[in-house]
Automatic annotation (TrEMBL), chains A, B:
<keyword id="KW-0805">Transcription regulation</keyword>
<dbReference type="InterPro" id="IPR009718">
    <property type="entry name" value="Rex_DNA-bd_C_dom"/>
</dbReference>
<comment type="function">
    <text>Modulates transcription in response to changes in cellular NADH/NAD(+) redox state.</text>
</comment>
<feature type="DNA-binding region" description="H-T-H motif">
    <location>
        <begin position="26"/>
        <end position="65"/>
    </location>
</feature>
<protein>
    <recommendedName>
        <fullName>Redox-sensing transcriptional repressor Rex</fullName>
    </recommendedName>
</protein>
<keyword id="KW-0804">Transcription</keyword>
<feature type="region of interest" description="Disordered">
    <location>
        <begin position="219"/>
        <end position="253"/>
    </location>
</feature>
<dbReference type="InterPro" id="IPR022876">
    <property type="entry name" value="Tscrpt_rep_Rex"/>
</dbReference>
<keyword id="KW-0520">NAD</keyword>
<comment type="similarity">
    <text>Belongs to the transcriptional regulatory Rex family.</text>
</comment>
<feature type="binding site">
    <location>
        <begin position="100"/>
        <end position="105"/>
    </location>
    <ligand>
        <name>NAD(+)</name>
    </ligand>
</feature>
<keyword id="KW-0238">DNA-binding</keyword>
<dbReference type="InterPro" id="IPR058236">
    <property type="entry name" value="Rex_actinobacterial-type"/>
</dbReference>
<keyword id="KW-0963">Cytoplasm</keyword>
<dbReference type="InterPro" id="IPR036291">
    <property type="entry name" value="NAD(P)-bd_dom_sf"/>
</dbReference>
<keyword id="KW-0678">Repressor</keyword>
<dbReference type="Pfam" id="PF02629">
    <property type="entry name" value="CoA_binding"/>
</dbReference>
Length: 253, 253
DNA sequence: ATGCCTTTGTGAACGCGTGCACAAAGATAG
DNA sequence: CTATCTTTGTGCACGCGTTCACAAAGGCAT
């Protein structure tokens, strides 16, 4: 069980709470919009509503970065944009490799939100030899066989996995072996990575399932038992446990 | 400020913590995999590692659902699959409409993970008249003008927004007016919705930015100031605040 | 039937995140 | 220069989520 860790960054990140880090991009986006409208300063109240958060939370978040901001006035937009960008590491160029050029991979390759934030799609990689050379979003797809070299040559440290679930772990291992230390995983798989490698997971169907839960709570509850097909009471398919007739514990709740 | 709320479900959801709900799909996936391998029972320890979580957390999560599980043995896989599915509302059919059939919308329409979880893509909607009628993932794209009727006719209560950011709020309003009460938003926009409507947000570039932050912490820190272009010290572009010469507070940290 | 062994279910402690509420800080007007 | 007004920055309290650790519960062997 040496390589079990997943998803939690081990290093607590120099005092800035993880929850705050997750909100910084939100602030940055709102600030960028203000900057484009040439708004010079903004109060915590205004910026908070623009970002969809509480103003107290926003101020506390900023306090972790330092005392940017002028009492009685607010925050200087340009200055704050720069500070947050720097804190997030967006002042440097991040070459990104996308592995698995299916529908989703292609969509990500075309996604504009990356380039505008300092992320550059440096390579597209797929296991299908037929795709090799095909341009997607203006970039030629390369074959998995060359993964190692591609990662090294481009200095890629962030990899995006959009492969089928069965291939995800293998691709992940190869990426890590090639030097990738941050992975954004779209495959519905739990990835095992060595210490020091960060994995973030985006699962499209999970989000829908969470919505369905709340949706059921909203609409349902009154129409409680709709049709109610027979719950699979087969706690003992054939193998173990109970040759003692039927299972009584079918309706525990 | 009547329609300000976003993202937080107001109803606390009958005692099941939000964090637990968010993990149920994870457990469900792991259990489904076990089920396909015809594994009859599983211990909290095994299931926890398969789902990538702590075993104590898993047991506590399940305790909110009720006392399914047998001490000394573990959990019956099939039974648990059913219970979690029911709790999440996946035993019923959820017609989903996707609005904005660009690269991402098309990718989602083709995504297999939806259908296998009880979600059915009932309609694809786009504002481009040229796309109307075009089949995507076997479904003909319909025009935004008919959005209202499409939602009603199909009984859609969950909408997915994959439009450009500028159109997101408008589409959102129309979806809500048509009866949608849950929205999965892929556009980088803060949506305003009335009370009772749930919004979940998936932002691809935010995830990358969070990774970049940790990446910078890992690799950087020693190579602290790389090239360091001039930080925008223009705290006063022209308008307000300070005709008092230069700003001293350029390097507060 | 009895005792051992495994695994669940949960009480309790702890730590993180959130929100309140206010004092300190600075701008602005007189 | 003084008073007033605005807005930040933060100490504090509270609640949620996580984790530990163990008693209760059940299976299984003898």
């Amino acid at each position: 069980m040496a390589t079990g860790r997943t998803h939690r960054p081990a290093t607590r990140s120099r005092g800035i709470p993880e929850a705050t880090v997750a909100r910084l991009p939100l602030y940055l986006r709102a600030l960028t919009a203000l900057s484009e409208r040439s708004v010079p300063t903004v109060s915590s109240e205004e910026l908070a509503t623009a970002a969809g958060v509480n103003s107290a939370k926003l101020r506390k978040d900023f306090s972790y970065l330092g005392s940017y901001g002028t009492r009685g006035v607010g925050y200087d937009v340009e200055y704050l944009v720069y500070q947050i960008s720097r804190e997030l590491g967006l002042t440097q160029d991040w070459p990104v490799a996308i592995v698995g050029i299916g529908n989703l991979g292609a969509a990500l390759a075309n996604y504009g939100g990356f380039a505008s934030r300092g992320f550059r799609v440096a390579a597209l990689i797929d296991a299908d030899p037929a795709m090799a050379g095909t341009p997607v979003a203006g970039i030629a797809v390369q074959h998995t066989d060359d993964l190692d070299r591609i990662i090294s040559d481009n200095g890629v440290s962030i990899g995006v996995i959009t492969t089928p679930p069965g291939a995800a772990q293998q691709v992940c291992d190869r990426l890590v072996a090639a030097g990738v230390t941050s992975i954004l995983n779209f495959a519905p798989t739990v990835l095992s990575v060595p210490e020091g490698v960060d994995v973030r997971k985006v699962d499209l169907s999970i989000e829908l399932q969470i919505l369905a839960f709340h949706e059921q709570r909203k609409a349902g509850e009154d129409a409680a038992a709709e049709d109610e097909g027979a719950p699979p009471m087969r706690a003992t398919p054939a193998g173990r446990k109970g040759p003692d007739g039927d299972m009584p514990a079918v309706m525990p709740a």
